[in-house]
């Protein structure tokens, strides 16, 4: 095999709690991660020249060592002494800097592609052990589906598929720095934490209402006051039939769960007319791997 094309799926956080800040500066979390059917497409093509090159459909994206795709491919290439190269083409569709693990899922695709193209024979678990060096969300993005994520995000417990529903994904005209959000998170001032255990039980019982009622993200305490448009989008969708709406990750993307496709489609069309969003999509949850 000399060429491989993969879909790298986005994620949302049905629940996100921060447990504590560790002495090394990292934050320990408890999150419910969920893959959605919104993806980037990446094509990996082997080259005889010992180099990693990349192109993307968005000019503002780095195509050098600052891109997680290149860093992930380099990690395996160096570890296994691979003396051939790769050319990578990225068709970016997932909103950038949006709290949907767009960079992490692309890096996951790079791990999978290098493993397959060069016949490294690494298991999914072995890939995940290496992936955490690139980013805390990358191991999840290799596995996908519905999962409880703990530690700094690398400790994954697979869960049953979340209840079927329709999902509006809406990114406003802003970018949010994950580093800034965590630096400004004051856990001693957080009065209410997400009910992660209750969310897990609702998923196990297949209760969409229980999932929607427990949507909660402790990082909203930082991001929403700074960017009120996030709350505006949540309120707008809530008034148009959403069972629940939440900011994903560190933001600014908002997602909303619906049990009726026509209602969701109508809400999406109305939302696009408001000017509140730069990108908005209607999609669904999926239990497939983030990379396929």
From TrEMBL:
SUPFAM superfamilies: GHMP Kinase, C-terminal domain, Ribosomal protein S5 domain 2-like. Its EC number is 2.7.1.148. One of its GO terms (biological process) is isopentenyl diphosphate biosynthetic process, methylerythritol 4-phosphate pathway. Gene3D superfamilies: 3.30.230.10, GHMP kinase, C-terminal domain. Pfam families: GHMP_kinases_C, GHMP_kinases_N. It comes from the Bacteria. The keyword S-adenosyl-L-methionine does not apply. ATP binds at residues 95-105. The active site is at 11, 137. Keywords: ATP-binding, Isoprene biosynthesis, Kinase, Nucleotide-binding, Transferase. Pathway: Isoprenoid biosynthesis; isopentenyl diphosphate biosynthesis via DXP pathway; isopentenyl diphosphate from 1-deoxy-D-xylulose 5-phosphate: step 3/6. Belongs to the GHMP kinase family. IspE subfamily. This is 4-diphosphocytidyl-2-C-methyl-D-erythritol kinase. The gene is ispE.
């Amino acid at each position: 095999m000399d060429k491989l094309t993969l879909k790298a799926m986005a994620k949302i956080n049905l629940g996100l709690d921060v447990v504590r800040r560790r002495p090394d500066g990292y934050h320990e979390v408890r999150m419910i991660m969920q893959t959605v059917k919104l993806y980037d497409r990446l094509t990996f093509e082997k080259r005889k020249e010992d180099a990693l090159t990349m192109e993307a459909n968005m000019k503002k994206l780095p195509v050098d060592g600052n891109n997680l795709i290149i860093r992930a491919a380099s990690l395996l290439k160096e570890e296994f002494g691979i003396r051939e190269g790769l050319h990578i083409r990225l068709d970016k569709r997932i909103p950038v800097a949006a709290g949907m693990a767009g960079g992490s899922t692309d890096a996951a695709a790079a791990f999978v592609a290098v493993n397959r193209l060069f016949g490294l024979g690494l298991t999914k678990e072995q890939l995940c052990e290496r992936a955490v060096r690139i980013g805390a969300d990358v191991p999840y993005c290799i596995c996908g589906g519905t999962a409880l994520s703990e530690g700094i995000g690398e400790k994954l417990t697979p869960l049953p598929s979340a209840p079927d529903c329709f999902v509006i994904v809406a990114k406003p005209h802003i970018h949010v720095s994950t580093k800034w959000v965590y630096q400004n998170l004051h856990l001693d001032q957080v009065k209410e934490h997400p009910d992660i255990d209750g969310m897990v039980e609702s998923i196990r019982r297949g209760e969409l209402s229980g999932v929607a009622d427990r949507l909660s993200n402790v990082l909203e305490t930082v991001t929403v006051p700074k960017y009120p448009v996030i709350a505006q989008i949540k309120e707008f969708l809530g008034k148009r039939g959403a069972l629940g709406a939440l900011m994903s990750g560190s933001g600014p993307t908002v997602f909303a769960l619906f049990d009726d496709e026509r209602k969701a489609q109508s809400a999406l069309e109305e939302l696009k007319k408001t000017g509140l969003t730069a990108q908005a999509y209607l999609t669904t949850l999926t239990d497939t791997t983030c990379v396929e």
